[in-house]
Amino acid sequence: MTTEGNNRSRVLLAGLVAVAAILLGKLFYIQIIDDKYKINASNNSMVYDIIYPTRGIIYDRNGKIIVSNKVTYDILVTPREVTPFDTLLLASVLETSPDFIRDKMAEYSRNKKKIGYQSMVMLKQIKPETYMKFAEIQYNFPGFRGQVRSIRDYPVNAGGNLLGYVSEVDQKYIDAHPGEYRPGDYAGKTGIEAAREKDLRGEKGYHIYLRNSRNQIERRYKDGEMDKEAVPGHDIVTTIDADLQQYGQELMRNKVGSLVAIEPKTGEILSLVSSPGVDVNMLADISQHYNEIIKDPHKPMFNRAVQAPYPPGSVFKLVNGLIGLQEGTLNMDMAYPCYQGYHFGSHKLGCHNHWSPLRLEEAIMMSCNGFFCYVLRNILENKKYKNIDEALDKWNEYVQSFGFGHKLGSDFPSELGGTLPTSKLYNKRYGKGGWKFTTIISISIGQGEVGVTPLQIANLAAIMANRGWYKIPHIVKASEGVEIDPKYNERQYTMVDTTNFKKVINGMWRAVNNGPGTGCTAWVAEVKGLDICGKTGTAQNPRGADNSVFICFAPKDDPKIAVAAYVENAGFGATWAAPIASLLIEKYLNGDISRPDLETRVMQGDLMSRVKTYN
Amino acid sequence: MGNFSDRGVKQSIDWKLVISYLLLIIIGWVNIYASIHSSEPSSIFDFNFRSGKQFVWILTALALALLILFAINPRFWESSAIPLYLFVLVLLVVVIFVSKDVKGSHSWFEFGPVKFQPAEISKITTSLLLATFMSQTNYRITRLKDFMMTALIIAIPMLVILAESETGSALVYVGFLFVMYREGFSGWWIFSIIAAILLFILTLTASPYVSLLTLLGLIAISGAIGSGQIDHLFWINLGSLLLMSLLPLILRKTVAPESFLAGIKPMYILLGVCVIAIVSLLIKGYRDRKRHLSLSALGLIAGIALVFSTDFIFNNILQDHQRKRIEVLLGMKEDPSGVGYNVNQSMIAIGSGGFKGKGFLGGTQTTFGFVPEQSTDFIFCTVGEEWGFIGCLVVILLYVFMIWRIVVDAEKSREAFTRIYGYCVASCIFMHLFINIGMTIGLMPVIGIPLPLLSYGGSSLWAFTVLIFIFIALYRQEKKYY
Asked: What SS3 class is residue B227?
């Protein structure tokens, strides 16, 4: 055993020596023979030049470019490599002040521990012409170099809130998306840019260069073998009609509110205006204008179309009427009296002057408040239900099926869901049994605890157009390399039958097309041949004059467009919202405007002074 | 204990081993400092940095070493090998369920700031149990029952560690094959295992065709070794192998693509040859009563099975990140997602060191943070970059000296327990050395495994200290009493 063992131990030791020889051989090869790895022979080292991908282009539904890219340059500094230099020359070439450069260098010097050998971005978005001048004298300034960066370009003014902006990521954003971003990267923060950030951004790449001891780039490391090319972002085709969007913005100029148009059959958002908005000229370099935007008392960054919970006002009567029909507590032959309102006890919910009594169709045409108080009372006092709690929760369920009271689930970021009362809410507020129909009477006319976004009432218009269903409103179309959630292709049915919709739609048609003097509320919106169906709303605004609301769709048969206009503090629904929505429809369906006087009145109307601001 | 004199201590402890141990931990400490060293100098003792923490690990490791040398009766290790082994096995299993996911592996216990990996100490307990079991007087590794027990002692912790996704640590257990070889296990088995690994890699990098050719070549060589002579059969084998290797080329040149002969794939012909070889080996082996020929036939069958299952293993059994690493290591694919980044950066760091290196703290690749995990698994990069080939040579020679010394001491010891345990220690250090350095210079896949005594980390340093000093204590006891 011992001799045999010794033999075997010799074999093992020979193996040990052989393996050590292999390791040393390979080390000898990479350290001494092969100079592929010897980049530091004269203190050279590698420079990683990050190649930023071009961001995807955003198209409108007709193939028109609404957001593209243009080239600028960033000036980078590696403070460790900077030698004393001519500050004045550099400042004049870069078109900045010598103090700016001195301040920056002092700042880097203070943070040198943190910076180490990293490069810092000193100047951003330099014009190509300026960069060319710098490039000529760059050799005088070791440690400084330029880096190509493409920024957003906006050939069409399609609205800052809709498009959203792209800006440099901050630490919070980096932490929220682990592993995806590094300081200096850009990301879409709002609007479509944020909604489709993953498609638009593409993938970063890098080129590796070798640098000699005089800080000059010598050559590509391994002839570019280890480089990674940037992958450009996917282009996005939106559902927006750029011309319509632009026209909508002009209509809403100097008004506070929102204008949303949807193609009813598809749920595609044709335009989404929030006014006042951020000008696209500010978007490309939003950080420059950020303070200005934040200080604006009208809050242009606030996207009212998807985030403002407004009372819907009388347009909500459509929903209550439909629920009444479906529940059987209302039919076409029922007539209710209204003498300037609905009287209960010593109170009354007021209404305007009109003949009485009315049936449903006329009540919609003339927007009678009293009639709809009876409608909701019948719904809530339905003997079918144990008590008003149950009836109200059933009502809530109905209204939810119209897309209210919860987020619609559109692909537009930061959408809000609005509010809708439940029995729980009232029990909490008034105590169990402490409330009855008259306590909550204001929800019959879309006031009180009902809060909806303009997108949601535009969706209501689409539901009316489709006679009972909608597709979730969305802003991005499927295109090559870009998929959309299949839910956007599914019909969402309301709990009300199509036959009931047909009855109500007659009222909507008459509200627009019955001619002035017949009591119809929205004759101003009529366009011959377009068969617009609409409903006005005048919603109370605790901060000043009433809000003007109008929803409509056209044509009555085979609708092509559904619109909601919501103008804050603009008064009666027919004064501002109805003409705005009607002009938008005419523009979309006919291409030109037959009522230039009305157009001029709307465009020149300035309601900003009526709006109370928060500051 | 305690009845030792100064003279006794000096004479009985293997000081050369202790000194090489001390040199390695100091080299490690200095290089950890260099690897985390930034432009703003900090003290090597600064506890905010890894070098300062490593200093504490070193002091505690030395205390452990003293404890093992002077306070624990070396008999303890033999008598408690079984409970220790079982206890660590329980820890190994428990850690899978309670640990956090660290880069896909579940192997760390965490107690606040203190982290500890049971896979590290399982090397020690496995070595102790192997030594205890294999040193029994009636132990014969050639006996199936004893062999199976030995294999189980090694395989159980190895499989549990594999389940923790610690491929590197599991691979270390392959080293116990050397111990088995030393204790009489057939060299043919070692040969077969190495051949299997070779075939696996060839199938992936070249093609199953090349792999089968190699297999036939290996069978021919082993046949020649087995029969103890290079006879005419060997030359026939070699000739037909050459013909087969040229076959694809010949077919392509001579057969018109539209002819029905084009349907004949070289692979089918080669498989036909394999079948003929198997049949003739079996017949010849049976007729001439030559066992090695029958075994060759079995080996050939097993080899063919391996080659064709390799593709399956590679695509279905290996995890995604392991597959990627192997692909990059074998140069099978371009590296779109940057898996080869670590290896490439580490080779740049080492390669740029040249002959003399850039000097202490002079490294740019390692101190700029190009190399990931540079103070733990990639510590050898710092050695290579700052101390050059000379530094690498010194470090590797120190390890070789240490392993050599342990093997020589083991051979000198009279007790089988000490000898076998010594071989276990040497094998563990050897496997770590080969896998870790092999990884940093692109010879091995990137599987995280520390470089013994050099890498940052308490758990690894303590484990190797205990591993080595138990051997030193065992050896010292022998010298003292005999």
From this structure: helix
C-alpha angle A162-A167-A173 in degrees, rounded to nearest 5 = 105
d(CA B120, CA B239): 50
For B51-79, give the DSSP string: HHHHHHHHHHHHHHHHHHHHTS-THHHHH
Q: Is A137 in CB contact (< 8 Å) with chain B?
A: no
Q: What is the DSSP letter of B88?
A: H
**Cα separation, A2 vs A335, whole angstroms:** 116
Which of A27, A28, A208 best probes binding to B when mutated, by most B CB atoms within 10 angstroms?
A27
Q: Which residues contact B413 (CB under 8 A, 6 or more apart)?
A: B419, B422, B474, B475, B478
Q: Partners of A210 in the beta sheet? A: A46, A219
Burial class (CB in 10 A: 0-12, 13-18, 19+), A606: exposed
Q: What is the mean pLDDT of residues B348-365?
A: 78
Alpha-carbon separation of residue A537 from A249, A396, A445, B109 (angstroms): 21, 21, 9, 66
> Is the confidence metric ipTM above 0.90 for this complex?
no
Kindly determine whether residue A27 and residue B384, on different chains, have CB atoms separated by under 8 Å: yes
The amino acid occupying position B106 is H
Strand partners, A59: A65, A237
Using an 8 Å Cβ cutoff, are B19 and B351 in contact? no
Burial label for B316, CB within 10 Å (0-12, 13-18, 19+), is exposed
- Closest by CA to A139, choosing from A22, A203, A252, A217, is A217
Question: Residue for token digits 């199976």?
Answer: B148
Report chain A's terminal Cα–Cα distance, integer Å. Answer: 97
Give pLDDT, residue B336.
34
pLDDT digits (tens, 9 = 90+) for B366-385: 554 456 567 788 889 889 98
Partners of residue B438 in chain A, C-beta under 8 Å: 23
Cα separation, B438 vs B94, whole angstroms: 31
Separation CA B113–CA B99 (nearest Å): 14
Distance (Å, whole) CA A465 – CA A468: 8
CA A143 to chain centre: 41
Per residue, the 3-state secondary structure of A350-396, as one string, reads: ECCCCCCCECHHHHHHHCCHHHHHHHHHHHHCCCCCCCHHHHHHHHH
**DSSP letters of A568-613?**
TT--STTTTHHHHHHHHHHHHHHSS-S-HHHHHHHHH---GGGSPP
Distance from CA of A554 to the nearest CA of B (A): 52
For the stretch A233-244, pLDDT in tens is 899 999 999 999
Give which of B228, B133, B145 is closest to B183, Cα–Cα. Answer: B133
Beta pairing class for A492-493 and A257-263: unpaired
Q: Write the residue in B344, B389, B399 that is nearest to A27 by C-beta.
A: B389
Question: Cβ contact (<8 Å) for B336 and A116?
Answer: no
Angle of helix A454-466 relative to helix A498-513, nearest 10 degrees, comes to 110
pLDDT attached to residue A248: 94
* A106 interfaces chain B, CB cutoff of 8 Å: no
Q: pLDDT tier at B407 (50, 70, 90 boundaries)?
A: very high
DSSP A38: -
**B403 and A CB contact within 8 Å:** yes
Q: Minimal CA–CA distance to A317: which of A260, A402, A417, A439?
A: A402
Give the CA distances from residue B150 to residues A278, B184, B406, in Å, rounded to whole numbers and listed in that order.
76, 12, 22
Q: Mark B238-273 as b/e (b = at least 16 C-beta within 10 Å).
A: beebeebbebbeeeeeeeeeeeeeeeeebeeebeeb
Name the stretches of chain A with pLDDT < 50: 1, 40-44, 212-214, 615
- Alpha helices in B164-207, H assignment, sequence order: 167-172, 176-182, 187-205
CA distance A293 to A595: 35
pLDDT the model gives residue B228: 66
